[in-house]
């Protein structure tokens, strides 16, 4: 069996470890001792190499796909006896990935991180197994400003966010969740996120409007200002509007780019958009016309890189301060030829046209000069 690469676990287990000087070090530190990256994928990795990261501000640790079940006993260790040591660690950003982690072990590490300076935590490519421990009597764990979760499976299904929330302090401002196995949160168990300003549910292509309605538990995100749902299976802007209304959120900025959006269906119910919404991103959405039922007034509307074949009429658009239409076909009506790349942004074509014009002007000047000497 192997040992976990987690820096904090190494600190807890250091007295019990036996280190071989012949094992290569899997941790690399940059020249400024700012960022340290560990990848424990070797059959017999040198776990003590993680101590190279002890002075780094940004630490990334990957476990090589190993199960950490053998370290479950660490969940019973009281981190208070190591609090003074953990407080001296300068790291503020931590990425942990590529491992199978028992839930009691994960939450024990979060409890220990409560004594650290950790500000940003990213969990990715993890499988969290087993039943979590009983929740603490009061909020404990790190005072995170940003929590990012990508491709993490949880044995407890939709209850995972409520369970995780109990082990971090309520100061979270940014929550990113991508490639999630379940976004059907247990709203009754979920506490309010009082400080959360940005919620990013992008790169969840199976979410859709219904899933968004389920994920946005009503009245749990009172401070939300930015909602990002790029590449999240959204089909109609009207359905997104209804999800926001049901949740009672008031985002100022909504990003629906990189979804395959359709025009609002005839006879669809009119939806009242959040009054605070001022910026709407509908770029790269495959739109052939401006969707009906958009907010009546916006500061920013991005419709770039869609399939609009004509310039939108004034009566099709909201009252908008800044409108972006770059990359739509009506701005470059020429049909593509075999020499043009239909996937480019138009910059190369514009440069090529300028070069051709410059070349023709130069040739003409040479001809005129030749005539002058004749």
Automatic annotation (TrEMBL):
Cellular compartments annotated: Cell membrane; Golgi apparatus; Membrane raft; Secreted
SUPFAM superfamilies, per the entry: L domain-like (SSF52058)
Cystine pairs: 27-38, 36-53, 187-217, 241-271
Keywords linked to the UniProt accession: Cell membrane, Disulfide bond, Glycoprotein, Golgi apparatus, GPI-anchor, Immunity, Inflammatory response, Innate immunity, Leucine-rich repeat, Lipoprotein, Membrane, Repeat, Secreted, Signal
Leader sequence residues: 1-21
Topology within the bilayer: Lipid-anchor; GPI-anchor
GO molecular function: lipopolysaccharide binding
Region Disordered, residue ranges: 318-346
Principal location: membrane
InterPro entries: Leu-rich_rpt (IPR001611), LRR_dom_sf (IPR032675), Monocyte_diff_Ag_CD14 (IPR016337)
Gene Ontology biological process terms, A to Z: cellular response to lipopolysaccharide; inflammatory response; innate immune response; positive regulation of cytokine production; toll-like receptor 4 signaling pathway
Subunit structure: Belongs to the lipopolysaccharide (LPS) receptor, a multi-protein complex containing at least CD14, LY96 and TLR4. Interacts with LPAR1.
Protein name (Swiss-Prot/TrEMBL): Monocyte differentiation antigen CD14
């Amino acid at each position: 069996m192997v040992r976990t690469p987690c820096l904090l676990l190494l600190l807890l287990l250091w007295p019990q470890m036996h280190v071989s000087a012949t094992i290569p070090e899997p941790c690399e530190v940059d020249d400024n001792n700012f960022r340290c990256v560990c990848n424990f994928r070797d059959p017999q990795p040198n776990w003590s190499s993680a101590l190279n990261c002890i002075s780094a501000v940004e630490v990334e640790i990957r476990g090589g796909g190993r199960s950490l079940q053998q370290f479950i006993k660490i969940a019973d260790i009281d981190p208070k006896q190591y609090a003074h040591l953990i407080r001296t660690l300068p790291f503020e950003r931590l990425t942990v990935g590529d491992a199978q982690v028992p839930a009691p072990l994960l939450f024990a590490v979060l409890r220990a991180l409560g004594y650290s300076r950790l500000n940003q935590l990213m969990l990715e490519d993890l499988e969290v197994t087993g039943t979590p421990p009983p929740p603490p009597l009061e909020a404990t764990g790190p005072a995170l400003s940003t929590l990012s979760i990508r491709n993490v499976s949880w044995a407890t299904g939709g209850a995972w966010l409520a369970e995780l929330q109990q082990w971090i302090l309520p100061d979270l401002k940014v929550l990113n969740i991508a490639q999630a196995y379940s976004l059907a949160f247990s709203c009754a168990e979920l506490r309010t996120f009082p400080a959360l300003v940005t919620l990013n549910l992008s790169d969840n292509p199976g979410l859709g409007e219904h899933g968004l309605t389920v994920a946005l538990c009503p009245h749990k995100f009172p401070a939300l200002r930015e909602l990002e749902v790029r590449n999240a299976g959204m089909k109609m802007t009207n359905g997104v509007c209804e999800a926001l209304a049901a949740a009672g959120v008031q985002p100022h900025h909504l990003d629906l780019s990189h979804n395959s959006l359709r025009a609002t269906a005839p006879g669809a119910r009119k939806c009242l958009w959040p009054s605070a919404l001022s910026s709407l991103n509908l770029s790269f959405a495959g739109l052939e016309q401006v969707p009906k039922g958009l907010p009546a007034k916006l500061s920013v509307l991005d419709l770039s890189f869609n399939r609009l074949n004509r310039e939108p009429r004034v009566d099709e658009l909201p009252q908008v301060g800044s409108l972006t239409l770059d990359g739509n076909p009506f701005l470059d009506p020429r049909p593509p030829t075999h020499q043009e790349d239909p996937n480019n942004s138009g910059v190369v074509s514009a440069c090529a046209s300028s070069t051709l014009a410059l070349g023709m002007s130069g040739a003409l000047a040479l001809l005129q000069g030749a005539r002058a000497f004749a």
